[in-house]
Amino acid sequence: MLEVKDLHVTVEKKEILKGLNLTIKAGEVHAIMGPNGAGKSTLSAVIAGKEGYEVTSGSITFEGQDVLEMEIEERAQAGLLLGFQYPVEIPGVKNIYLLKAALNAQRAARGEGDMPAPEFMKLVKEKIAQMQMDPSFLQRAVNEGFSGGEKKRNEILQMLVLQPKLAMLDEIDSGLDIDAMRVVADGVNSLRDSKRAILLVTHYQRLLDYIVPDKVHVLMDGRIVKSGDAELAKELEVQGYEDIVEEPAA
Amino acid sequence: MATEEMEQLVRRDYKEGFVTDIESETVPPGLDESTIAFISNKKGEPDWMLQWRLDAYHQWLKMKSPSWAHLDYPPIDYQAISYYSAPKRPEDMPQSLDEVDPKLLETYEKLGIPLHERAALAGVAVDAVFDSVSVTTTFKKELGEAGVIFCSISDAIRDYPELIKQYLGTVVPVADNYFAALNSAVFTDGSFVFVPEGVTCPMELSTYFRINAANTGQFERTLIICESRAQVSYLEGCTAPMRDENQLHAAVVELVALEDAYIKYSTVQNWYPGDENGVGGIYNFVTKRGDCRGDRSRISWTQVETGSAITWKYPSCVLRGKESVGEFYSVAVTNGRQQADTGTKMIHIGEGTRSYIVSKGISAGRSNQSYRGLVKIGPRAKGARNFTQCDSLLIGDTSGAHTFPYQEIGNSTATVEHEATTSKIGEDQLFYCRSRGISEEDAVSMIVNGFCKDVFQELPMEFAVEAEALLNVTLEGAVG
Ligand SMILES: Nc1ncnc2c1ncn2[C@@H]1O[C@H](COP(=O)(O)OP(=O)(O)O)[C@@H](O)[C@H]1O
Ligand SMILES: [Mg+2]
């Protein structure tokens, strides 16, 4: 589904990703872990198309399409979704309005018409209940005055409404208390099926107790230095990043 | 000038210059006393009105075009403009929609103004102005039953001369400024609203203006009067088709609010802005002023300005009555090479007067925009208060925004607060929206609409929707 090959990315003349390889298949949940500043957010941002990152070499393909040739919105329309580490506030734009515009834009790209209003309302009500958010959030401006945890729930709400094929969730667990973590994790798990994939970016093992990944990768200094299954995350917890890397490859 | 001479002049002009032109629809370009006499005669005006116009004309001749605004345009050749044009009609004034030229109605449809539907659905009375003549007036009867007068200014001059004499030019004096003087001399149409004591106008009143024929300046004159405890909400909307040459538009709007009266005046302005090189487009020089004459009266201006090549416009309030309130809510959007110099003046004269100013300016492309606001507190305005919020949003790197707040405070018990922000449209906000699948253009308009929300919510519901649509049209191609 997603194929990242030998990706080199430079930000403001500094090389951040230095030959990164990653393959994600439909139905899989991958977790990327690594210390602060390793380049985790850079990876998901480059896949989503954020400006200011220069891809100096390498390739990204999603379902056979050359992602680097696509506009930001085309990537989203193709089924990629980035859940932000720090969701931005958009004053004056209602949450429900953004949801509707996004959903209908993606439908239009698939050649479908707008979702009829009653069906849309039903869908949104169901998802907002699932996220245990108060319906009043729909009428508030996007992320404006939301607490950290509320912003994260809101990201997952968008994901549930948009139903992406590949969701990349950047530090979706940061700033969440244990109850909120459970709600967010349940939301993410409800998206899991054989046709979709999820890429979790985190530097804590905790989230992975709730969303058990198929694969775990350790990202350090711009490369994936180690990959394994869910057990690897637990080892990391005990040993720390430096030790894991120094251990000779099995 | 003596009356006799004037009459001679009028007669002579008919004989020599305009005999055939009376039948025709447009006078040749040019402005002199005979042009004014022609207009006045065409409108069937009484002599005092003609004299009023000629007086304005003579004052105008002595005045100079203002140069203080932050605008750049070539000098206007006032002799190259035609000052009167009317659409072709089979009969005289149509009595109902059935009698209106279907072609004309078609044009309105294209502009998104299906008159009968709009009127029926929204309960809006429409006094539509096509070029210089009122084409159709609906709901006149219902309004009549409430005692509200809503008609063209020409009709009002004929049918309500006492009201016109009492109020016309009392808010914006003939020689107030260059463009107001010109308007006073040559205005051809516009609306008149009179809401008598204690009456709340039963519906929104709305007028759509449109410039159509080539090279015709449009000079509307609008006068709205609310007697004690009367209320009215009025909306003026404009759209203009593509034009090659710049067209002059110099309107005057006068509002009078007596004791406890409330006038809400909303404008959606979408004159043709010219192409991306600044060719064509409307020059919009407007004088709008409200006079809160009575105690506790309130006048509220809401404007959405998306069009025109050049906008020069400062809807203002004179807060004369004790505890009267003036409000100004504005969204101005410029793109391409548009230039806008707009703002407001709040003149606090009475005790305990209050004013609110919320101005949102959005500049894209190579456009330039200035907010110019004056808050003046007179010596008797004890405890007066003003709050000004002035926000500018820049799209791209080649547009400009300037803020010129002026304050003249003549009473130490007054409170004047001013807040201003300038921001660039957030890359992060754009990325966020686009990463949800929303196109860049839609994302921009979504963010901009959000930025303008405080003002849009002041607009009547159906017009708020229209305003958002207009904003989107204006910002097309603003990024990327
Ligand atoms: N826009 C930027 N400008 C300059 N440096 C950046 C920018 N974005 C990221 N970086 C740098 O790139 C490195 C990786 O950042 P990031 O991908 O956010 O790491 P992580 O998410 O793993 O903590 C850091 O050193 C960070 O300072
Ligand atoms: Mg990060």
Secondary-structure element series of chain A: EEEHEEHEEHHEHEHEHEEHH
Radius of gyration of chain A, taken over Cα atoms and rounded to an integer in Å:
18 Å
Bound molecules: adenosine-5'-diphosphate, magnesium ion
Strand content of chain B: 25-35%
Rg of chain B, alpha carbons: 22 Å
List the chains of the largest interface with their residue counts.
Answer: A-B, 29 and 24 residues
Q: Supply the CATH architecture of chain A.
A: 3-Layer(aba) Sandwich
The name of the CATH topology of chain A is Rossmann fold
What's the oligomerization state?
A: heterodimer
Question: Span between N and C termini of chain A?
Answer: 27 Å
Regions of chain B with pLDDT < 50 over 5+ consecutive residues? 1-24, 88-94, 113-126, 128-137, 209-216
- Estimated structural class of chain B: alpha/beta
Helix content of chain B: 25-40%
Work out the helix count of chain B.
Answer: 13
Which ranges of chain A are low-confidence, i.e. pLDDT below 50, for 5 or more consecutive residues?
none
Q: Just give the CATH class of chain A.
A: Alpha Beta
- Find the count of extended strands of chain B (DSSP E, 2+ residues): 21
Shape annotation of chain B: globular
Q: What percent strand of chain A?
A: 25-35%
Report helical residue fraction of chain A: 25-40%
